Amino acid sequence: MIGFLLNVLWFVLGGFVMGLGWWLAGLVAAITIVGLPWARACFVIGNFSFWPVGYEAVSRRELTGHGDFGTGPLGLIGNVVWFLLAGWWLAIGHLGSALACFVTIVGIPFGIQHIKLALIALAPIGLKVVPVRR
User: What DSSP state is assigned to residue 79?
Assistant: First the structure.
């Protein structure tokens, strides 16, 4: 129940706007057809941006113990292209949302989550969103 309430508060404090930003980037990437791998990552992380409490983004290499296309050299190239075309815009959006959250004491944890999402925005290829292990 607490997780649900925190997610609702997060949604209001910037999660909705930034989730829409991720989905917009995903739609633009999907329209280009070539951008379909980026589009999938955008929608996954967009959903994570809407409701992050109880989840975390981890490298697929760390999760599975072996590499794949997204965690190897092709993933690096994909992340560089992503950064140049859309990643830095989303990162700036998350940083702006973080600054707005840092204005209040209650918003500080949400601001920290926005900074984590800003780092994810710089290089999302090769990440998987999983439930937090406790």
Answer: H
40-74 burial, b at 16+ Cβ within 10 Å, e below that, comes to: bbbbbbbebbbbbbeeebeebbeeeeeeeebbeee
CB 39 within 8 A of CB 86: no
Average pLDDT over residues 96-124: 91
Tokens of 38: 């980026």
Q: Quote the DSSP letter at residue 13.
A: I
Q: Name the CA radius of gyration of the chain, rounded.
A: 15
Q: How long a stretch of residues is the chain?
A: 134
Confidence of residue 134 (pLDDT cuts 50, 70, 90): low
Which residue, chain included where needed, has tokens 């998350």? Answer: 94
Domain boundaries of the chain, sorted by first residue: 2-131
Q: Report helix, strand or coil for 55.
A: strand
pLDDT of residue 96: 93
CA separation for the pair 53, 21 (Å, rounded): 19
pTM of the model: 0.86
CA distance 1 to 6: 9
